[in-house]
Amino acid sequence: MLIVIEGQDATGKDTQARLLAEYLRERGKTVTAYSESGTGSEDPFVSEISKLTYKTKQDINHRTRVLLFLINRYEQWRKIAEPALRRGETVILTRNWLSTLIYEGYAGGVSKSLISRLHKEIMPDYYFKPDRMVVLTLSDEERQRRLNTQAVEQGRVGEVLKTQPTEFQKKVNEAYLKVAKEMKLQCLDAGGTIDEVQEKLRKLFAL
Ligand SMILES: Nc1ncnc2c1ncn2[C@@H]1O[C@H](COP(=O)(O)OP(=O)(O)OP(=O)(O)O)[C@@H](O)[C@H]1O
Ligand SMILES: Cc1cn([C@H]2C[C@H](O)[C@@H](COP(=O)(O)O)O2)c(=O)[nH]c1=O
């Protein structure tokens, strides 16, 4: 089973993915969860690429970033997700190609059709049809609070995409809502406590 948790920065995707994985493991499932951006990866190659993609101060643009995110997306898919799915296990992805479409396409100005074509060439059909998918939404005020907590808890400071101007963040937020509507994706208000959101997520996924 392939599960995707999407949404803007600090909406609680990783927290919810971790709890959902624990819940499913307690029920006897074998679960692998990872972030498509490569954050927290123990794979040295993926970790290097993720540093280059959004932690570097070097002059790279959104077009280059499309390619770098795609490298990590594909590498983790072929090394982790594909073998696990073939074994009949559960895979939980934090983010998928929608993140590139939204951050680098809608907000960054890269051609959305280019992003779509590149992903269709590289990723298999099944990747685009997860069994469960949700977009977490959150008020900007609460999201800012969580970004601050995240910076302290996880030491995530000065990252290129998190420090883009407010205009960029606004475009990302609007694009998530637009794309979710157009693609008929389920949205979940992530504004409650961690446990409340987890409860709602399990209900939504019927798990
Ligand atoms: N429901 C919640 N209520 C309060 N704080 C939360 C909640 N969910 C997560 N947090 C906190 O908010 C911060 C961001 O959460 P998390 O890292 O899970 O978000 P994320 O969407 O994966 O972020 P990113 O996309 O930036 O990696 C963390 O410090 C986490 O502990
Ligand atoms: C996968 C992906 C991510 N991003 C952005 C979103 C965040 O600001 C950073 C790091 O991701 P994380 O989930 O917070 O670890 O990268 C992006 O712009 N495009 C993508 O495809």
Automatic annotation (TrEMBL):
Keyword Endoplasmic reticulum (UniProt): no
HAMAP family with a match to the protein in the record: Thymidylate_kinase
Name under which the protein is recorded: Thymidylate kinase
Source organism, top-level taxon: Bacteria
Database matches in InterPro entries: P-loop_NTPase (IPR027417), Thymidylate_kin-like_dom (IPR039430), Thymidylate_kinase (IPR018094)
Top-level class of the enzyme under EC nomenclature: transferase
Alphabetical list of PANTHER family matching this protein: THYMIDYLATE KINASE, UMP-CMP KINASE 2, MITOCHONDRIAL
Ranges where the Thymidylate kinase-like domain occurs: 5-200
An annotated Gene Ontology molecular function: dTMP kinase activity
Assigned protein family: Belongs to the thymidylate kinase family.
Documented EC number(s): 2.7.4.9
Function in brief: Phosphorylation of dTMP to form dTDP in both de novo and salvage pathways of dTTP synthesis.
Catalytic activity as recorded in UniProt: dTMP + ATP = dTDP + ADP
Keywords: ATP-binding, Kinase, Nucleotide biosynthesis, Nucleotide-binding, Transferase
